[in-house]
Amino acid sequence: MPSASPPAWGRPPDPLANAHRFNGHDTFAADRFLYALRALVRCESCSLLLQVGCQNHEHPLPPVLLDCGQPTWALAWDTLHECWRRFHALHDRELLELTLRELEASNAYDGVSVDDARTLLQGCFDGDIPHAEAGKVVIAELLRHFLVDLARGEAWQDWCVNGGPPPRDVEQRVAAIEQELDRALRYGNEPEGPLTDVQLGGLMTDMVELVQGVLVARQPAILGGPQKTLKTLLGLDMALSLATGTCWLGNPDWSTGNPRRVAFYSGESGGPVLLRKRQVMQQVKRQALSPEEQQQFDDALARNNFLWEVRRSQLPDLSDPHSVDQWRRQVVAHEVEVVFVDPVLLCLGVAAKDLANSSATGQVIIEAVDALQAEGVTVVLLHHSAGDRSRRFAGSDREPLELSDLAYPGITQFMRQWITVNRADVYDEETRRSTLWVSIGGSGLQAGGVFRAVITEGRNHDLWNVHTESRGRHQERERADQELQDREEQRDRRRRVLEYIRAHPGTTVNAMARDREALAGIGEATLRPILLAFQGRGAIRCEQRGATTLYYPVDQDAGRRTATDVGEEDLGGDPDDE
Question: Strand ranges (DSSP E) for 317-374?
């Protein structure tokens, strides 16, 4: 059997379903052929397809049409062919007439009715073309069937049917032709030269948020960080969220809207591990939904919205245009909207040997990403950070990362949106809890910012509990916690000082400062404001004996309390008193 599926041209596609045969050749029925001619004449974006035919065909289409018994079609097509080759235009009736008369004078079409061909071409200017895009497909399929010479075509068809070694030269030629045809199909009739505001606006497309505040459609994105910072799992959670229309990391601010088809390419963790992780995430996300939402969740997965590729041999080689084109075709055939590549370094092919060359590496990345973006596909690359960050930042390895902290500028410089990850605290091996900084940035609708994520996987990797909060809120909460802790510590110091004075009436500052057991951590500088505060509230009194000040508890003299009976009114006061 063939080692790879033959291109679409080798298997007559749906547009040929109504074709009939002439002398062993497939050709379009009259209505479809006329539709192709009209589309060429009427649509500038279709004309580029004819240019592809002029540049590539080895067995010209007009002679084939003559052999098929369609001389009028042959002359009409040849007229378009010559008009495009000479004038690079098909929309001028006078140029078409001039070309037709020259072909008539060349005696290449003796016996063919020039008037019929003229009527056919002139009629192409009349009426509407309701489906211009369909016209592109019709023309592309017609050209696919006639651009390769008959001998090669027969060899290719034989391989499609019988298997065996594929005819390599034909395979390469067909692939090159299909690439050009596909580029022509995507041709957008873009204006040339510097653009006016109106022209620029016409080229712009509305930005669509895939993950609210995080990810925008049709812009290259990167998710990166040091080793073992859950990059793959964060990407996996995002992919599953997009596929099911749920929130990334369970954060309502990072909603995804309607489910989209996603493909996750990974060459690191292995299929079983990733599948197990996704099953855990899937269960967690589903449990947080209402019954109606759960049904929608199940329906999205039943539609195969989440696709995998975990075989390293099947990962795309971004440095090989042929591999990129195969990857693009694969993604388009499966109607994928978002692609994740983990890690991008495994997909750089020969470009990985020269990562220091930012220009070359960047060109490889951007050409591959552009190929998918032209199909409306968003690409998210997973990458690692530079290994020397802790040295460059004097050991500050618990801070949020920036885009520039990721390795190899050639990979990162073209990214229009990014998510960087770094550990914010030590990994807890007992509970498999990771505390991370997640930094979000971009040049589009991304809200951006730095967030703290606490993720617990469980000892048996059976959990996916995620709590996220902004760094600002985290710092505010930390300040509040610190203030509360400071107040408690202040109250504890006051309590111990008052208890000490009650247990040792007539004590001095020096005596209290020297007692490292009862008043540990309370030096003379801390003692004096506490004593002044107690004096001001009448909790203690002092006597002056020469140069020495003695301190006594006021309430003990009255016999109201024991030495350790300290009331709230004794400890009260503003923490700033100290």
Answer: 338-342
Residue 572 corresponds to which tokens in the numbers above?
A: 């009260």
Scanning the structure block, which residue is given the tokens 């990167």?
222
Per-residue pLDDT in tens (0 to 9) along the chain, 578 residues: 333 343 333 333 333 333 334 334 455 567 778 888 888 888 877 888 888 877 776 666 787 777 777 888 889 989 998 888 888 888 888 999 999 999 988 888 888 889 999 998 988 888 777 676 677 878 887 787 677 766 666 776 677 677 777 677 777 777 777 777 777 776 655 566 788 887 777 666 678 899 999 999 999 999 999 999 999 999 999 999 999 999 999 999 999 999 999 999 999 877 888 999 999 999 999 999 999 999 999 999 999 999 999 998 889 999 888 889 889 989 988 999 999 999 999 998 887 777 777 777 888 898 899 989 988 999 999 999 886 554 444 445 789 999 989 988 878 888 889 999 999 999 998 889 999 999 999 877 677 899 999 999 988 888 999 999 998 888 888 888 889 998 999 999 999 999 999 999 999 999 998 988 889 888 888 899 999 999 888 899 999 998 899 999 986 544 444 444 444 455 555 444 44
Domain 483-577: CATH architecture, name and number where available: Orthogonal Bundle (1.10)
Q: Quick one: which H or E segment has residue 22?
A: strand 20-22
Length of the chain as a residue count = 578
Helices (H) and strands (E) in the chain, counts: 22, 15
CATH pick for 209-419 out of 3.40.50.300, 3.90.550.10, 1.10.10.10, 1.10.274.10? 3.40.50.300
The CATH 3.40.50.300 portion of the chain extends over: 209-419
Nearest residue to 451 via CA among 430, 437, 433, 461: 437
pTM confidence score: 0.65
